[in-house]
Amino acid sequence: MQDDVILRISNLSRSFGPVKALRGIDFELRKGEIHAIAGENGAGKSTLMNVIDGILQPDSGEIVLDGKPVKISSPTMAQKLGIGFVHQEIALCPDVSVAENIFMAKTNVSRSWLMDYKKLEREAVDVFRQLSDIDPSVLVKNLSISNQQLVEIAKALTLDCRILILDEPTAALTETEAQTLFGIMRKLADQGISIIYISHRMVEIFDNCDRVSVFRDGQHIVTNNVADILPSDVVNAMVGRVIDNLYPEKQEAPSDEVTLDVRNLTEATRFRDVNFTLKKGEILGIAGLIGAGRSEIVKGICQLEGDVTGQVWLNGEELKLRNYQDSIAKGMVYLSEDRKGDGVFLDLPIAANVSALKLEQVANGIGLIQSGTEEAQAEALGRKLNLKCGSLNDPVSSLSGGNQQKVALAKMLSVNPRLIFLDEPTRGVDVGAKSEIHRILRELANDGVGIVVISSELPELIGVCDRVLVVREGRISGQVTGDEMTEENIMHLASVMDAQASVA
Amino acid sequence: MDNTVNLAHAGATDGTPFLKRLLRMRETGLIVIILMLFLIMSLASPYFLTWANMRAMSMAFAVDGLLVIGMTILLISGGIDLSVGSVTALAMVIAGWLFLSGIDPWVASAMAIALCTGIGAFMGFFVTKVGLHHFIVSLAIMVIARGACLLFTGGRPLGLYTLPPEFKFIGQGTIGPIPIVIVIFVVFVIAFDFMLRRTTMFRKVFYTGSNEKAAAYSGIRTKKVFFLTTTLCSTLCGIAGIIYMARFGSAQPTFGLGLELTIIAAAVIGGASLNGGSGSILGAILGVILLSLVSSSLALLDVSVYWQDIIRGSILLAAVTIDHYLNKRRG
What we know:
The structure holds 2 protein chains of 2 kinds.
Chain A: E1 5-16, E2 19-30, E3 34-38, H1 45-52, E4 60-65, E5 68-70, H2 75-80, E6 83-86, H3 98-109, H4 117-131, H5 145-157, E7 163-167, H6 175-190, E8 194-198, H7 202-208, E9 211-216, E10 219-225, H8 231-239, E11 258-267, E12 274-279, E13 283-288, H9 294-301, E14 308-314, E15 317-318, H10 324-329, E16 332-335, H11 339-343, H12 350-354, H13 371-384, E17 388-389, H14 401-413, E18 419-423, H15 431-446, E19 450-454, H16 458-464, E20 467-472, E21 475-481, H17 487-503
Helix pairs in contact in A: 3-4, 3-5
Chain B: E1 5-6, H1 18-24, H2 26-44, H3 51-77, H4 84-100, H5 105-130, H6 134-153, E2 158-159, H7 165-172, E3 174-175, E4 178-179, H8 180-198, H9 200-210, H10 212-216, H11 222-248, E5 250-251, H12 259-269, H13 281-300, H14 305-330
Antiparallel strand pairs in B: 2-5, 3-4
Helix pairs in contact in B: 2-13, 3-8, 3-9, 3-11, 3-12, 3-13, 4-5, 4-6, 4-11, 5-6, 5-11, 7-11, 8-9, 12-13, 12-14
């Protein structure tokens, strides 16, 4: 490994309104290294990557590429400078072929007037020969999520990039696919390409990366060779305190009282024969790879989507729900994983967001909204959740991610629910708000509210839940509790089928 | 600067002074512009500030005001309706045609309004059940309704000379010095403005337009909302058509050509977003008043008809551009 620095960032800062997302970051990337970036959600990792990719502009600080100071004003410019960014979210055109998706990026940076289809096609085939056996003529929408992810990586590779940023690329991949990806990453690094690898899976970082940088609360904490430190050092640097105190106390003794009982829940294409129970006072986690059917199952239980058969019993009563309105009326609500997409009304006032689930509560007999009642409701719930905001009449878009999530949670609590399904409750939420949300969940559970948490962050599930169900390909593949709750056990249950299939 | 307040230490009362909030409201800006135009015009033309001109002007925007109410609510829910001009004309034509066939004018009017409601429901069906876009569905209905107008009249206006005076009273009568048309308009504006601000029913319109999926995830039947706002808009077209018929004493198959654009422009000037989720009745009405004021001012000043459209279009573009930047700064 050579030691020459290809990218140097010094004293870089960036704020969003009052929130300082990056404060005085220093960061170095060497030629041909795989550099892991670790940090909790909200630590500033993605902000920094967006700055490197030209999506965001820094407020202050310097970026030096190959010894020359640069100003990266747009993603197109980043591409021209040889920086490729594979986002966690897949951004492909579903209705065109794999090859054309790859051409799209290439065409964008090409200086020639005419398309050289032959050359592009040759390159696509070359790239895929390294990656996997995906047929470049297949339409993207017909590929699995993991293969789509590989297409994203291929797209970046065809741009002759010298710096490749991978944002949690393995989140949607099976173990074998991930191993293939690591092999490719090492090969690229050997060719002199520098890779920034974002992950919070310690095993991946320590098995595959050369160095690791840890971020916390918008600051760069430490950079070290992985050979010189232990995973626990990285974790402690990430959370900034001893990990034991991060999560609230667990349930003392399991109750026998059943809050939720789901029997033989089946949906046409998404899941089959789902059976589980939730005991009173217990926090139940649901783990699984993206696309395994976690969200689909709980949305099915609430009648939010899907054509579902099976039985759902809540507090000893069998539910016959026709739609989500019925579910809300029975006190069973769903907190969406996509806060901005379908969790809150960004441009409406905070108070109007909180009241949306059951407007009758803030209206009088003839359906007139009482703004005093509405604000009092938002204020009471806001205080309970320690919501930080200016005025309750401000739009939700004026709040930070953590406070937006508290508004979404306040909306759920406004109906005094008996059971809440929380889908990725702390995604994009800063560390402080995150542990507050965890504490609130435990309090609710102690008060007898049923809590079911879906999360892609295994440490969160292990820290918060009393028991974790694992979903694989639309079925519950197992459950872990107590000391069995480890990342390894959960990942094994979540992906073992694919591993066996590939052995056979 | 950290200007967030911890709720635990602050009351829920809004700290912003009333005057500051008033100044930030879009309606205030529109009123200022309208008053300025008023001032300039009363200096520029001796005919402007006469009772006759005021009355003619308010009559001109009053009925369009009903259309703009329906359009604003539809825009807030996230829809749009291009058919308002021709559906209004169709209400007029159908009611007139039924009347000439010997049906009582009140019954004929009720039937025409019911037909318009039916047209709205028909569009609502295509939007919610079939899943087509509001724009395309209403574009098709715009053409169909116009065609039906021509079909029923043979392309010529229907003279309704025998309309009973008590029917014509709706469009031509006055209570004291105030035309009935204005009274109807004011009642509709106050009623819908109040409902839109206060009722749970119309709050759901805001939720749906602001974020359809989030609304669905809050247990709101968003398709029902679309269906009802689409239908309401057409019903108001029907009512407007009948008032126009009573006022003109005739049914004109070519009435309201291009009216949809004026109505949409007024709603947008008044703060309705084409992306849904925002808008107000008061703002939209001020938008109608502004456009109507500009039209009659240009006519009074003897500006060529050809220039009038160019000026009106430019005003729309300017108003929306200024607003876009103001919103950005506020946001």
